[in-house]
Design goal:
Structural class: alpha/beta
Mean pLDDT: 83
Largest sheet: 7 strands, mixed
Number of helices: 14
Number of strands: 13
Radius of gyration: 29 Å
Oligomer: single chain
Order of helices and strands: EEHEEEEHEHHHHHEHEEHEHEEHHHH
Amino acid sequence: MSTICAISTAPGIGGIAVIRISGAEAIPFTGRVFHPRNPKKQLSLCPANSLTYGQAFDKQGALIDEVVAALFRAPHSFTGEDTVELSCHGSQFIQQQLLQALIDAGCRLAEPGEFTRRAFLNGKMDLSQAEAVADLIASTSAGQHRLALNQMRGGFSRELAQLRDQLLHITSLMELELDFSDHEELEFADRGELITLARQIEDKITSLVRSFSLGNAIKNGIPVAIIGETNAGKSTLLNALLGEEKAIVSDIHGTTRDVIEDTINLSGHLFRFIDTAGIRETTDTIESLGIARSFKALDEAQIVILMDDLSRPAAHFAQFVAQITLHLKHQQVIVAHNKCDLHSEEKNQGSLPENWSQVRISAKEQTGIDQLRQRLVEATQLPDLQTGDVIVSNARHYEALTHALEAIQRVQEGLQSQLSGDFISQDLRECIFHLSDIIGEVTTDQVLGNIFSRFCIGK
């Protein structure tokens, strides 16, 4: 493979920048650009995991910058290849000049994700760990960070390896019977034991599949729908939670006609707030479409903030609650009694479900907003990811696990109905195939290209 180079630090100006070079010719190519201050410390002579101070020159011999070269020798590097990282001053001009000098020296500009792809191809990590690298870089909350870090450290891979070992055990017994099918008196696989083992595998895969909704919420933001009638203060509340004027606020009924989304980080978790159109009877076609989207957002939300306008009669809100309750399934509900600055007295809200949380707020005056944020954090009911629980957050992994689950269910049906071993073995191999696809043992170049093309250049 050719020797590649790229800027590995974030775009822009900073104190320092890092240029990464990796490949079989990384050391000699870099040596054409980098000259150590001490002539006895040429890169080719330096030990692995060492730092060398020197200067970088372009092909005309003009000084570019004073740099520090970090040397990592194969196979003990991120990519598994000889790797050099040059730390220079963070000027964009210096970065580009240094990059051009390396290209003139024989390097090729790296493609997106090519360093991590080489790490995968060289056996430094499996595919699920490589994908976790991208998630780790993109993490914006403590929850996302812990999720990606656990996967990158191999927690998910170990779970899959255990499942594959169990499946291979069943497959070997089934295929051994097929090899000795002429001897009917020989039975290598006890069907009862195999059914029990297949059921255990199904339970584990089912658990992983079900964890995707949680993993997706942690990765993309816990969806919170703000639901209420028109002019109940939903948009004002969204602006108060976000700390900016994201939504238009007006006394005119039906101002919000489409869903408005934005995210904030609360106590290490990303929340995705959805401001919806006010729910009411209307003949306006556009507003009706917005209301339909409000109910869709309600269905997809994990948490619902139900807005109660304290200036309106309690019986009116009770009717609204009865309407909304018909659409609730698994969501956690927080009732926000709004406009408490104008209506300080308590009013009878009727009987609300005991598991619903309630808080008095003034979205306009931002009273009770901190308390509402605390209620949101409590309503997440997220597990402590530091315990090592494996949670699926990647859509590709979810799809593969879903296919694996279908295959192991067919295996159980075949075992219970005394189906021929060759048919059961085919379903077993299919289940193993889908699990292996997650960690990259059977993944095609086309799939790899699609995965790594989403990485940033330099990683």
